[in-house]
Fold 4-hydroxy-3-methylbut-2-enyl diphosphate reductase.
Amino acid sequence: MKLIVSEKAGYCFGVQRAMKKARVLLENEREKKVYSLGPLIHNEQATQKLMNEGLFEANGIEDIDDGSVVVIRSHGLGEKYYTLLEEKGCEIEDATCPFVKKIQMIARDHVRQGKGIVIIGDAFHPEIEGINLWAGGGCIIGKEIEDFEKIEFSSDKEYVVVAQTTFSVEKYQRIKKFLEGKIKNLKFFDTICDATRERQEDAVKIAQSVDAMIVIGGRHSSNTKKLYELCSQFCKTFLIETANDIDVDEIKIYDSIGMTAGASTPDFIINEVIDFIVHTKKHGKELGIDE
């Protein structure tokens, strides 16, 4: 069996930055509790390690002690949360991905100019929820062409279009073309980050050359799900969180396997999966990887 691992697998810049900020705070803060409001990143194993190191993960503002330190998650939060945290006397460490922060400011600034904001992305994803709040909560949001077909856009209003940083490039282009034919006055900000584009392109390239793909990442991770969807178009694809999810009997039938991982997947999980596939024996069966 041949194993091909994507060079683009694993932490993106924004996730790496958020994890580093949290770890520095945990190393230096001794008197104050350090919280994240919601998961810092979308990977349960990575966030659990941070919690083991002392990070408290709060579900809501009410769960955070006054005067504590709060790390804003990589997906960002709405503007109102900064105000609420300041009212509680909290010290804020903003770990919002810079690419997400850029979209937040685009949405905020243009809605102040009276323009409509269209967001291409998942309305229930925390990144999109935050962007929507920065724009006052009235954005038009959709992740499929069908979501926009029923919208009546004003012919007298100018619209600004942004996209979730981890959105499918292929799907974005289709929706963009549709909106160009539907809205008279609009301006696009192509806000899918380069790391997402490169990761998706590399995953597709590998998927086209192998018998099966393994995509590693949190099941709640948007970009991981998109990698799975893309790879599934070209070959049998398995979505796993850890090496424990691998069924040797399922994958041993393939002569070549590709591997990629979401932007929130830590190296230690990727390495564990590679080590499992290359070296493990299960019920006396070897995979016979070409090393």
